[in-house]
Amino acid sequence: MRFGRFLLASKMWFTAALFFFFAVTFWAQEEVSHTGQASRDELRGALLQARDAVVRLAAEDPSSLDTSISEKVAELVESLRYIDDREDIRYLQQHLTKVYADPIQSALAPTLTVNQLPNLLREAEREKDSVTRDQKLGVVVEQQIKHGLLEDAAINAAKINTPTSRATLFTSIAVAQHKASNDAAAENSLDAAIKACLEPPPNMYVFSADMQLENLATSLAQQGYGVGARTVLASARKAITSKKRPNGYDWYHFADAAIDIGDLDDAMAILPKVEAGELRTTEAERMIAAQARTADPGNGVTLAMRIQVPDRRASVLCDIARKQASSGEGSAAVATIEVALEAAAQSDEYRVFTLNDIAWAQIDIDD
Fold first, then answer.
1. Could you read off the pLDDT of 71-99 as tens digits, one per residue?
2. pLDDT tens-digit series, residues 198-214
3. How many domains does the structure of the chain reveal?
4. Are 134 and 231 contained in the same domain?
């Protein structure tokens, strides 16, 4: 139990540290264009701290995927690209655990011309090692998506043997097809992604089908394909109910994904199936936080005050303040920040990070 608490505290600390470094990063990126090399060096210093924090955080549980970490990895890679720091992108590829390193393996690959793709495809198809073959085919598919060759991308994605890689690529194809207003083709790609998730896993380290589908649903929602996210999450529900003994943890992860994609009614319906105790309490507070962020500011503040964890309450209040400021309610936004500061005063261990979030919210609302 003590070790579990240590891991939880460690994860929370590194997550907070990571968010802090990214806040510094965004500020430094703005400064680079004004002050040149000095700020560029300062930015790289912040990025190196973020790099080390994300590597340590990801190493805590190498068998699982935390979408907040994967998002930060993607943001970090983009920031390193911004300053042309290929060395540290390569460091991430080498030192992150596999579940986070695999999606950024092609980060250093330049965009190829359409004329280069046939040779790359032939090279991939001649490859005898199945893992290397899948990786090379994945690069081909990613390049075809970039060039809008979505039919070709779907044909080549189907050739990939590893189900998880195939599912991820078909999800990317579905998003691109949706953005191109070709929703019939997008639905076909989603079907292919779902079927890949439901295939028997090649080894014990692969997520269960329902968790893979939940991760894909979250990814789809983040990329603006809400209908697709709900379709995939419905398949995740079927995967859970088809288990001989679905447990509270299964439904906890499902409710998490439902909140992530904005399906709060589904999350609310599932909540009684989440294991009673800390898990259910955490999920209930996440639901209240989501409701508060989507409600009108007045009701949002009322809902936020029901959140027991001070750091989470302060974070929600900061988001509400931003919404108020963007609607021209400057004085109301300042008042909401005052309530967030009261929440920060109740936080002990992580107060510095909560205050950091509040400071950035004050900047955002021009206070």
1. 778 778 877 877 777 788 888 888 887 77
2. 998 766 556 788 988 99
3. 3
4. yes
Is 86 in the same domain as 134?
no
Question: Residue 367 carries which side chain, given as an amino acid letter?
Answer: D
Residues 226 and 327 reside in one and the same domain: no
Same domain, 227 and 132: yes
Q: How far apart are CA 232 and CA 213, in angstroms?
A: 6
92-139 pLDDT tens trace: 888 887 778 877 776 766 667 888 889 889 998 898 888 889 888 988
**Does residue 237 share a domain with residue 312?**
no
- Asked if the structure places residue 250 within a domain, the reply is no
For residue 325, what are the domain limits? 299-364
Do 150 and 195 sit in the same domain of this protein?
yes
**Tokens representing residue 305 in the block:** 């005050």
